[in-house]
Fold each of these.
Amino acid sequence: MLLSPDGLVNGASNLGGAMHGVHAVHDAHESTIESSEVIPVHPLGVKPLGNQYFATGPTARQALGSIGCMPDEMILQLLEYLDAQSLRNVGSTCKFLRAFCHLEELWKALFLELQTASPGPPSWKGSWRSTVLQLPAEAIAQVECNNVFSDVLHRPFECSHIRLSTYISDIPRENQITRLESLTHDEFERKWSDKPFILANYIEAWPVYKTWSIDGLGKRYPDVNFRAEAVDWPFSAYRTYMDKNDDESPLYLFDKEFAEKTGIDVGQHEGAAYWPPECFGEDLFELLAEERPAHRWLIVGPESSGSTFHKDPNATSAWNAVIQGSKYWLMFPPSVPQPPGVFVSEDSSEVTSPLSIAEYLLSFHAEARKTAGCLEGICRAGEVLFVPSGWWHLVVNIEPGVALTQNFVTKSQKHLTQVLSFLKDKPDQVTGFSRDVTKPYELFVERLQEKQPSLLNETLQEMERKSAGRKRRWEEAVGSNAEADNASGGFSFGFGADDDDDIP
């Protein structure tokens, strides 16, 4: 059983409490409850809502006065409108609001607003609240809030302290991502271009593999600004944040301009810092030269950082090479419309999922593991994981680490068809191109016509064939429905007219 530090039932999984993020905790959470995991004491003494039913004496909520009728979620939404000083003042009124006004996500949002107005490296104080207010540890008042019971407050704390080992161990055999010791380009094209795999023993030859550890990057590029989600920080500042934060969703360094910033060369030539694995063959997006979309990233992050479920942009495939640390991957094929706990809009332009990776693991991991098509694996230092086009994937750092990733387009006609269809049919979802490129589909077709005319013609014919097939199936479905309706005397679409109407 998952217990709070005082031995009471943790959370609302048994007692029907509030939601965290956009999803209620459902039956999949039982897998966590059944574990023997015990989380640490909340720094303010806040307890899950369910513990309120075992408590004696008054609760802190009783001191809220007229706003006591509001649910916790509404109180949190109101606090999101306050500036730093107002939030600090409100937190001084009572223990219940003190606990709410210490929620790190509120202060993180305020910090990002300040960064927008006045960008610059932070003087990190160990938490977002302390950093915004520039409070040293000794200046923080210690006020116990152990009569505050709230899932809205406790759930993020629980998520930030989950044990990843609970979820990444005992992977079912049928779920395990295949590991390969070696792979030729011919084997990749024949057998592996549409299946994930982990390639071992490859990147040890890269010069960066020997030097780009977290410590190595810190020594080489301490003052270089890298993109960490919504902020640009010198690596030294990000390293300080990495080493001391308690975030549910730690900031993830994900920089697309790292090669230019560090002055390294990439490619199959002497002096290159690294190069794409040869087994993947030619990258057709290279035909776009300087006009190609963003395609390669340096990734650095602490334990528990990572990316929630998504598909790679523009229907590209990708490889992800781990230089330091290890990553857990949870993947689903394109045949799965949406992974458990993930909700996709009708046009696939919006993906809604729990606010954090930890929340997903707590609430949906057990269900995901049992879903047909699910694949899981751990990619360790020195290994490369391949993500085929259209595959859903969630990835989380098991330990602090460094990785390099690149998106690409293989010469497989199936893959090229997917990319061209995406660029043509979903122009509003195309990403990564500069503003100067207003017609990515036309540009790519033009370059393919110059360098790969036969492949292009075959691919366009395949796209036309598929389009005609979809149209034919639609017409057959509409026709059969109309015939059935007319035969049964049921409703059918038509235009009503009087006998004297002139209808051609």
Amino acid sequence: MHMEANHEEKRNAALKRALLILSCVLLSIGACGGPLIMRLYFIHGGKRVWLSSWLETGGWPIIFIPIALAYYHRRTTEGPSTKLFFMKLPLFIASAVIGLLTGIDDYLYAYGVARLPVSTASLITAAHLAFTALFAFLLVKQKFTSYSINCVFLLTIGAAVLGLNTSADRPKGESDKQYIAGFMMTLSAAALYGFVLPLVELTYKKAKQTITYALVLEVQLVMCLFATIFCTVGMLINNDFKVIPREARNFELGESKYYVVLVFSAIVWQGFFLGAIGIIFCASSLLSGIVIAVLLPVTEILAVIFYHEKFQAEKGVALALSLWGFVSYFYGERKYSKQKESEMKNEKEKEVEIGKKDTPETAEVSQLDP
């Protein structure tokens, strides 16, 4: 019986590890590809900020695919009585509220990307890790090591360095006011998403039902649905739906490629959100925030390569500080996990020794002693 429990525990740990790796891959695709495709839209004639924010979560129907696959798997093992959805009303309401906050964040971020080069926007977004750490501490009592504190500090300083010379990489024809507005909007988006990630983790902890990955997918579905509804209202007020056909005809890359950009943007951004919530489920909101921050220098370099964006001294300093922070965090986590393994091993050895002392043979010998 003990062997079976051990086997099941190892199997669950392996599945969770595989899911964590898959979530990291999805997050990598979304975190690097999402901003690049969004910037591609704006560079070649796109001007609709509400449309861009809508695309960040507009691909939510894609989530029905893994939900359907999970349901099919459960049905083959549990029979026809299995449920399609597990979500209860309190969790639905919490997910809807987080979805509306995500919709606001989508708009703030899209506005920033419309005004800033991708490399600059990406490094400003690195500041979200400081906010994630703060809210993770306040909401879910996240424990910190000296290494994780150092990581958060370096990444935040790296983002602040960019503010020293905000006009150096300003796109042509953009005023000081527009550029500063883009900078502040991006920073606000970073702060809000830094609050959303721990809030998702808190929702998992407070939910009065077992959190499985199938349920996590349902949470993501509801969050993206309500974020999309929020952005749809913005599009309606701004008359974006009427303008789309005209904007497509005037798009520099061609009308058909305009729609390809929109579709791929929606798909890639879903990878970002699925990856983020997957990492929160498998580990923590802080790790999710750190992985996003780790990918930001990659996005910055890709922007310099593909869009020939300027790479000033400030960006170099910010990139160096970011990389230093990443190395610091992962070194600390590795050291902490090794220490934890060593402590667990020592505890097991002590338990074995105590067990040997308490055996009947030992007890008999102790009774015979004078």
